[in-house]
Structures are given as C-alpha cells and as structure tokens.
Amino acid sequence: MAFQSYSSSDQLLHRQRERIFGGGGGGGLNTTRKLSLFFATLCVVDLFGVFPIVALPKSIISCGLYGAPLVLFVITLQIYTAVVLGRCWTIAEKLDPSIVAKNRYPYAAIAEFTYGRRMSVFVTVLLDLTVFGGGIPNLLVAAQNLQLLGSRVSGGSFEISFCYWLLIIGLFLCPIMWLGSPKNMRTLASISVVVCSSVAILTWISIGEDRSGSFTPFKDITLGLPPFVQLLKAYGIIAFQFDIHPMLLTIQVDMQHKRQIGKAVLFGILTTCTLSMITTFMTAYRYGMDATNNVLQILPRSWSLYLTILLVTLQLCLSSAVGNSALFQHIEDLLGASRDFTIKRCIIRSTLVWLGVLIAEILPRFDLVMGIIGGTLTGPLIFILPPLFYQRMLELEKIYSQELKRSYSTESSQMSDDHLEDSDIETIGDSRRSWYGSIGSQGSTLSMAKIRDNCNKWIELVAIRCKQICHFMYSDCILAGSVIVFGIAATLASTYYNMFDIRETQLWFSCLSAWRR
After folding, report:
1. Which of 109, 241, 380, 454 has its CA 20 to 30 A from that of 206?
2. CATH of residue 384
3. Is residue 479 part of a domain?
4. CA 172 from chain center: how many Å?
C-alpha cells in the first residue's frame, strides 16, 4: 500500500528536505513555461467550449422551472470534486515529490498512490474511454453545422451530408492534434476563449433579429416537475458539458502555482455559465419548447448565423486539441513514443482521430453520445472517485505527519534523557504524590477552587473536541459521503436509461448505409 513507503523516519526527513530545498537541479529553469492562473482559466473555459452555449439550452428548457436548479446543483458538486481532486495532487507532491515524474497521467497516479495498481488501471481505462468519447460530439456538431451552413447560404440547393463533412474535419484536425500538452497551447486556448465569447454574442444577436412571425414568450414551458427520464437525460448532458476532471490535473501540473487550480476552475465555470445562462434565457423567451438540441438549427438565415456556425466549428476543433491531450499522452507512453515531436506521435494521434470519425459515422446522434458519456462514464470520475481519493489522501497525510513528529520527538527525548538528573526524578516523584494524594492528609489539600478550575478545563476540552468532531463530520465524512452516494445513484439510473435509449434509436449505421445506397 501507499502508506508503507512512509514508515521510515529517514525517508520522511529526506522527503521533507526535498520538499523544502528542492529535489533536483534545473527545476527552476522550466518555471517560465508554466501556466499562470490566467492561462489556466483560459484552458478551463476552452475545455467547456461552446457546447454550454449552443447545446445546453434545450436540456435546461425541457426541465422547465427545475432546469436552472439542476444545473446549479450539478455544477456546485463538480466545483467541489474538482477542488478536492486538485488538493489530492498537492498532498501527493508533499508526501512523495517523485510523483511529479508521472505528470503525464496524474489522475491514474493519484489512484495508484491511494488504492494501488488495480485502481490505477481502472481509472486509466475510464479516463481513456471518457476523453475519447468526449471528442465524438465535437466531430458530429461541427459536421452538422457545416451541413447547416451550406443549406442556409444556398437556400437548400447546396447541401453536403454531414457524413462527408466528418471526413473533411478529420483531415483538418490531424495537424492540430500533433501539438503537445496544454502549456504548449497558450495561443490555442486564447483563441478558443475569444471564439466562445464571439459565438455567444453572435447567437444573442441572431435571436434578437429573428422577426419570423409572432411568438409566445416561454412557449409551452411548464412549472411542474418534468418526467424523471427527462431529468436523467439533462443530468447526463450537463455532466458531460461541464466535465473537466479528465484534463484538470494535466492543467494543474503545468501551472506555476498548483494550489490556484480551484480559482481557475471557479473563474472558468463562472465565465461559461454566464454565457450559457444568457443564451438559455433568450432561447426560452423566444422559442420556448420549440428550441432544438442545437440552438443554431432554429435560428433564421443571417450573416451573424453564418459567422457563428464557422466559429463554432473552429472552436470545436481547437477544444479537441486541448481536451484529447491526456488520452494522447497516455497512449504514447504505452507505445513508447518520445515526448518530443516525432513521426510516431503524428501516426498515433492521427489514428485516434480517424477512429473517432468512424464511430461518429456509425452513431451520428450527438445528444445520445453526450448522455452516454455524461451519465455513465463521467459519473465515477466526477462524483465518486475524487472524494474517495481525497479521504484516503487525508489519512495518508495524517500518517505522514505522525511519523514526522515521532522522528523529531525521538531525537528530542534522547537529548533530554542524557541531561536528566537524579534530583529531577525525585522532584517528579514528589509532584506525582502531591497530585494523587496519600493515605495521610496530603489528599485533602486540594481546595474547591482547584477542583472547579479542573472541571472547567475538562468542559472546555470536551467542547473543543466536540467542535472538531462536528467540523470533521461536516467537511469530510458527510459531504464526501453524500457526493459519493449521489454519484453512484445517478450513474446507475442514467446507465439504465441510456441502455433503453440506445435500444430504441434507429440511427445506427445511418451514414454507412447511405454510402452503400
């Protein structure tokens, strides 16, 4: 187990000195290439991308009055688990500085550090599936947007199926995917954030300029509780669109100040939620329940719509480059590829891109893919594993502190024993006898004032202990346990729903069938 490596006091002192004075040369030379809080926030916003702006409003509107509370609830839990996951890495670096060498796959490194190799393998497989599957909706929405653009510009006379646009996008994505980790993508992240902001503003303009007939504000939106299945579907889409946990630690290990990852997550979520909520309100007011899964599909023809479609497609491509970095790095390590730019890296990443294109051709429903990934795969990564790892990390940190104190106290006691005189021993014996009393009259020397003082001290001590227990139960046990229970229940329920949703869909192999005809 992980805690066994901290049982030696010599190792503890050595690691403590490494943490304070540095464990190797040249570490400070790379700080100029690290991410600042500002660029880390840009990376977080880039990971969210444009989906919360163009694909989330329909899910919120379908839930009626309960849509906004559902979003706030899920996002609040995600902020909590993102913060505790970042703390896990900070504690792990404190306990074992050598874990920095595993910075290409930090989530799996934390899993191995806390629960061993088997947990690491499970997390790795789950991460790879989630990151890989998360790129498929990017491809689908980008391809469908290009098909929509051709149809709207030409008035329906020029319309290339999104099945063919998927192939073109795959060719365009390959060179972008050859880039390295997020610290090598400052320019991409910056451009992506500007694009997201522009998409939101242009979408608002397009909605405001829609003069196609009369409309009823908030049409058909009810205030009652929506069907449970609709809540599950919305939960899966929200979890998918606001899930940054697979990439969060990759951003953190590239930051100058790793403890600021919580601020980066908070600022990024606030930025994205502001854009998304404004778009959702305007869409609900103008279109009501007639809103489509992709907001752009219901907007009227205009130059602002055409520009929005192009920007959305561009942002999805840039977001894929950053979001798939963790998967690419892990596969490259498994296949022994160099961390530098090589032909082998290009081949590996291009192969993964085309595999995603193939799956998109087989199942061209981005809302269904979002629900499967968000409800089934990201549940453990978001709500179950982070608090579970955090509780274990706190236990390991406690063991570490106890061993460190024991090593110092052992040295101090040896110094004290050498200078202990016989007179001191007699003094200690006299004090003990005066405290416990004797058969004679010494036991009656305790006054009522001393008894009252001792009682007050015990009461104060008990009160302090009770406060500590309450704080522990509130901040660690109950909160983490509640999040874990919610994650398990939501994952099981969403998986059950997704199984029936997949069974009922009639879109399997639609693109491949069209090609055969």
Report:
1. 241
2. 1.20.1740.10
3. no
4. 28
